[in-house]
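ARCHIVE CARD
Drawer: 12
Card no.: 0347
Subject: one protein chain, sequence and derived structure
Cross-reference: see card 0346
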Amino acid sequence: MNCEILAPAGDEQTAYTALNAGADAIYLGLTRFSARESAANFDGDALSRVTRYAHLLGAKVYVALNTLVKDSETDAFFAAVREAWERGADAILMQDIFLGKLVKEKYPEVVLHLSTQGGCCNVYGAEVAKDYGFSRVVLARETPIAEIGRISKVIETEVFVQGALCTCFSGQCYMSSFAGNNSGNRGRCKQPCRKKYTIDRAGFEEPAYALSTSDLCVGERIGELVSASVFSFKIEGRMRRPEYVAAAVRYVRSCLGGEGTAALSDLKRAYNRGNYTEGLAFGQKKGFLSRKTQGHIGEEVGTISFRMGKPFCISTFVLRQGDGFKILREGAEVCGAAFSEQGAGGFFLRAGARLLQGDIVCVTTDTAASERILLGERRRKISLTVKMYAGKQPEIVCGAFVSVGGETLERARSAPLGAEQIAECFRKTDGLPFFPEVRVETDGVFLPKSVLNALRRDFYEAYARFLDPVRTLPPKTFEEPHLPPAERGRTAVISEQREDADILILKPRDYASLPEGGKGVYLYLPPLFTGEDEALVGPALGRFEGIYCEGYYGITLAKKYGVKLFAGTGFNLTNRFAVRGVLDAGAEYFALSKEISAEEQRALCTEGAFALSDGAVKVMDLCYCPFEKSCKTCDKRERYTLKDEDGRKFPLRRYRMNGCRFEVYNCAPLSDGGGAARLFDRTLTVGGPPTRGHAVRSML
């Protein structure tokens, strides 16, 4: 089967665990520019050790340099790319497609994968990535299965099949940044989506994990992804423990073999949030959100009854010291629990709260399962042919690699080396992770044992260098492009209705009923845009001067329909290379990232540049129904209020494009008049338009 199981590695131990569990490739981050800044991550020496081990096993290592890069950081970023490649990386994952294009032009040998943060969800985004030198795209988790098949015909695809899900469209979540000054696009997400919220709709008024998704587990539906020609099956979890990663690798492997059920138990006990969801590729199903529980709930092993007035778990589970449990009631977590003593048909528990008859007991720490999962050492099967003929130099052949000894062999006069003696010597691999099958050809030669051992050591050292060769990239200069200053200021307004402005960006409530466009009117297109969406809005695009698009796919889409492109804030433009890149891509106008300061915006100000200056700030795109598709009882309101435990109120907007989608806006708008806006405990300095530049006002 021509596919790849790709596992996460947040630290060196987990990297070795994943490889020993059978991962075909691992992905990891360096100490800078990693979208998981809280992971241990890797310095250069650790990366070299891991890539060597992986390459000796025939596996690959992908390095994630997938955060947004500010103008002041580009030199360090290019240096990190160069170091990662020279240290053995097999591919570099990047979010900024324009920086990727530049890297590929300077270093054609570097393999680039577009991170899921790049938001590729349709063939247009895939075409842009391919044109810019990327060889693979990591698809947005919201990409429908039909779209996945179409994209796989354009470029190699990588799809998440296991692990945590972001509630917001990848690369477009700004909630942690605006509400807590920790940018997810910079690797510092504090996961506000995992907090409790209320929504002002009947049945949703009580505090719940209203935005917290269950963990993804595609399971045996992975066969449909195989049929869609997906190459790489990705496991999320650079913050997870080694036993979870190992269990996930083995589970995905078993699913590809059609035998996933047995391995699912170990996976649940390692980590299970919300009893899993198949995700959005197959359409939203019940259980996509984990409204009642947020953390690890493990696997059910029994129920509570009472014996001698003490809580007793009726179960066949075999306990060990160190096992841990969690109690659930009506799907919600009650408390943790610990083993007290064994009893017939189960065991007694100690708990931190009063338990009730029928409560569910889940094991969250199974020490025996963890030990079993972590057992085993992977070795690579290799086939050697050792040729030792009198009058010739010894020769060892392993596939395309040939090693020749330095001395001419002599025929033995009395005690020739036997074939089994030679084979036994070469079965020793000097600590390298090989499992050699040795074939010997000889006509009876003599060789001292010390020389034979040296011949073996030299072969394995040379073969290891063959599998993990030294790489070098010549130092090159990335000259910063000159950006001429903007000559005049203009205003663009994002609105649901017509407004007086130089440029109107029309954001419909229902894309099935588009109004007339006209000169100066751009149609807003969201980050998720599928073939069905194109069929809905495509015929009307000619009525507008252009499109305001929140994803890279707009570059190709605008050209197809012959309209102008206004690259939206979803392009996440944070440096002058990206600004130059979007202009070269044909954008008439572009909006700078809403996560950079006013000073940083001024440095990027050029003709066509806009910055969000006042009004509502969108912080999340939800490509699912937060009301769990309760359509029969839906009040179909366009606006709701999402309130957190601190009383902060976040507007929740509904719009329709082949079904309902939702957007979350920040709890406070940017200030009018271009001044900096005070957002609770921080000062957000994206409030004013750049000097002599343009401003975008959100009226939503």
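Annotation on reverse: The longest helix spans residues 449-467. The longest strand covers residues 332-343.
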